[in-house]
C-alpha cells in the first residue's frame, strides 16, 4: 500500500516559529498542504512570515512559558482554521553557561521555555484534540542530541532536552488509545540563530572538526522526518525519539 506525506486537510500549530527551524517548519507544513498557526513571542517576525506564506498561515503571538498564552494561542489558531490536529513544540533557548557560572534565573528560564513550555504546548494540543474527537492527532516535540550526550556549558539546556525526550514517551503512553501520536526529534548541530555566533568562533570550529563528517547539518536535515511524523504515514509510530545528527554522536 502506498503512502503520502501530503498534509492536505491538517491544521498545525508550530511554536518558536519566528526564526530558525520553527520558521522552516511553518513554511514546509504550509507547502505540504496544511493550514499553519505560527506561534512565537516576536509578533513582527510572525506577521512577516505569515504574509510570505499567505492564506494558509496565521500569526499567533504566544510565550510558551505562560500557560495562559498557550491557551490563547490555540484559541486564535482555532478561530483562524478550526481544530488543531498537528502540533510541533519547537520553542527553545540555548541556556548556555558553565554549571558553576550560569545564573539561577537563566536555569529557570531555560527549563521554563524548553521543558515546561513543551509539556504545556503538548497537553493543550491534546486537550483540544480530545475535545474535538480528533482520531489522527500528531504531536512532535523537538529535543536535541544533548539529551543523551554530555555537553559542557549547556547543562540547563541538555537537562531540559532530556526531559523533553522522556516527556514525549510518557505523553505517548498516556494518549496511546486516544488517537494522538507523540514523538520527539533530537537534531544534531544545525547552524541557526541560536548557535550561529558560537560556530563562528575558534572553539566552534574545533567542535565541527571533531564531528565524523566535519560539518554542521543543513537546515533541510529534518524535513523528511517532520513531514513523516505529521502525516498519515506515521500512523503506527508513537513514543519514539528520532536522532538525526549526521553521525555527530558517533
Automatic annotation (TrEMBL):
Taxonomic path: Bacteria, Pseudomonadati, Pseudomonadota, Alphaproteobacteria, Sphingomonadales
Pfam families associated with the record: adh_short
GO biological process: fatty acid elongation
GO MF assignments: oxidoreductase activity, acting on the CH-OH group of donors, NAD or NADP as acceptor
Classification via Gene3D superfamilies: NAD(P)-binding Rossmann-like Domain
Protein name in the entry: Short-chain dehydrogenase
Similarity comment: family membership: Belongs to the short-chain dehydrogenases/reductases (SDR) family.
Signal peptide boundaries: none
Biological source species: Erythrobacter neustonensis
